[in-house]
Amino acid sequence: MSDFILETKGLTKEFKGFTAVANVDLQVQRGHIHALIGPNGAGKTTCFNLLTKFLVPTSGQIHFNGKDITPLKPAQIARMGVIRSFQISAVFPHLTVLENVRIGLQRKLGTAFHFWRSERSLNQLNDRAMALLAEVDLASFADTITVDLPYGRKRALEIATTLAMEPELMLLDEPTQGMGHEDVHRVTELIKKVSAGRSVLMVEHNMSVVSGICDWISVLQRGAVLAEGPYAEVSSNPQVMEAYMGTEA
């Protein structure tokens, strides 16, 4: 099996003459935390949407575990083990924390569309749901209505629901966006913890997060890869400094 769990070749997305992602060759090494960074408008989230097929590439290929997944639909890619989070919180606000995680686990029961089934049929998922909540330090919040959770805890819940889908590759879109220092630290440590035995590709603006946990970094500018490497190498690259600062380094 290849050392790379995810590879793109010439990945391109055009919108009526505007090129949002331009000929991107990306290689995510198995077992690594890989960051996709760049200034606003660089094409990071568009790239995520292409990888998970929420957008259809104009050209190029996407390979996961050596298989060409370019023609597949989002649900098919998710079933293969590529699971993503979103910039905007994507939990069910009026369900409890436990119920949110059970929804992620429900697919295994084959009852996803059997809405007439008793809710008690989901109780068999409680032990696994509680184990996932413990993994993200939310066990004490199991009965809390999700809308009442602090923002940082909601992001932790999203990671728990992502884990419920048993991802081989987790795609995290700005997991610490809008957080205070304490929540940033908690979620950063959480990502490091849950990455054990998994691969992670994340879009992140907070450079202290990137420098602290990421093995490899790809920098996008105007939709194209500007630089790649470990943080120490990328952060001292004059082109990267110019892209972020807007002046010549």
TrEMBL record:
Assigned GO CC terms: plasma membrane
Sequence ranges assigned to domain ABC transporter in this UniProt record: 6-247
Keywords on record: ATP-binding, Nucleotide-binding, Transport
InterPro entries: ABC_AA/LPS_Transport (IPR051120), ABC_transporter-like_ATP-bd (IPR003439), BCA_ABC_TP_C (IPR032823), P-loop_NTPase (IPR027417)
Single GO MF annotation: ATP binding
Keyword Iron listed: no
One Pfam assignment: ABC_tran
CDD domains: ABC_Mj1267_LivG_branched
Name by which UniProt lists this protein: ATP-binding cassette domain-containing protein
